[in-house]
Design a protein that fits this description.
- The protein is an alpha+beta fold and about 210 residues long.
- The protein has 9 helices and 4 strands; from the N terminus they run βαβαααααααββα.
- The chain is globular and about 45 Å long.
- It has one domain: Glutaredoxin, CATH 3.40.30.10.
Length: about 210
């Protein structure tokens, strides 16, 4: 089978990142007899200003995009329909608040050393979009880390210090320098870029084209 490495640049606070990965999972299921996949997640922060935490999401999006709160509510509702069709829990995405995800990204770097990075990423998506939890809060992060099958005590040690902080910052700087300004971004075999939450059929076709090359 053809080996395919997929580096995913994303943020836990990005709903299209959750949708994009769910669609990628569908594509990988179709291609499982043709290719063997390696997945690595990389950091991106939609809300890097920790001082700007805690604003109701609809108000924050309205200000960011220059659209009314009602328009943003409808856009979020449309996203919730897509998520439900993919089996994602976006139940409380409209009641969430803006959150900084730096510490969550540190835990994701650590989870990568444990071979459970994807499990933790999906757990954090569930926490934020499904339950509208505060994913900048250490107790919340620890609870969901344990739910993903990782060691809570070890995760607590990571959060208590500055471990993996430099790795996250280097990650962000590297992909910014590479021109990644929006997420999700899927880099295939460190050469080909797929931007956005593309449909599964498109991903299947594109990955097959890349595999031929």
């Amino acid at each position: 089978m053809t080996p395919i490495q997929i580096d995913i640049v994303s943020d836990i606070a990005c709903p299209w990142c959750a949708i994009g990965y769910a669609r990628l999972e569908q594509a990988m299921e179709v291609l499982k007899e043709e290719m063997v996949f390696g997945i690595e997640w990389h950091a991106f922060e939609l809300n890097p200003d920790r001082a700007n935490d805690g604003e109701p999401i609809l108000q924050a999006l309205s200000r960011k995009y220059g659209r009314s709160v009602e328009e943003m509510e409808q856009a979020q509702s449309d996203m919730m329909v897509i998520a439900k069709e993919l089996g994602l829990n976006f139940t409380h995405m409209q009641s969430r608040f803006t959150r900084n995800t730096f510490d969550a990204h540190r835990l994701l770097k650590w989870a990568g050393t444990q071979g459970r990075q994807t499990e933790l990423k999906k757990a954090f998506f569930e926490a934020y979009f499904g339950e509208a939890e505060d994913i900048s809060d250490h107790e919340v992060l620890l609870r969901w880390t344990q739910s993903a099958g990782l060691d809570g005590a070890a995760a607590k040690e990571v959060l208590a210090g500055k471990e993996y902080a430099e790795a996250v910052l280097k990650d962000e700087a590297h992909y910014q320098k590479a021109g990644i300004t929006g997420v999700p971004a899927f880099i295939i075999n460190q050469k080909y870029l797929i931007s956005g939450a593309q449909e599964a059929d498109y991903l299947v076709s594109t990955l097959r084209d890349i595999a031929k090359k």
